Amino acid sequence: xxxxDTPTTVHLHAxxxxxxxxxxDKLLGHRGDRERLGFAPxxxxxxxxxxxxxxxxxSSTEVAxxxxxxxxxTIERAGGLPPAMAGAVVAAVAGVASARHLLAQAAAVPxxxxxxxxxxx
Length: 121
Prior knowledge:
By secondary structure, this protein is mainly alpha-helical.
């Protein structure tokens, strides 16, 4: 990846953006095509091409994760969120992050109930 800043390609330093880099590394760190996608780790952080990441071949949930990471980078650059907003942001992300898990659990409950009922008859 080109090592020059453009409006959508930036170098995020590990000391300034630790949580953003942790999230992007979790999403892309294992991929052999991460640099082509727009994530190029360096010794001090990573080059990130936000537009390329958001418009590339990632799934919709992966693109959503990129957008969350971009928001995290903005928040880290600003020094954090005001306390009144921090709880709301954490709750919103936690809610949508666990929605799929909760739906899967809810769908499994009737099946478990049926199988338990069969055992007790």
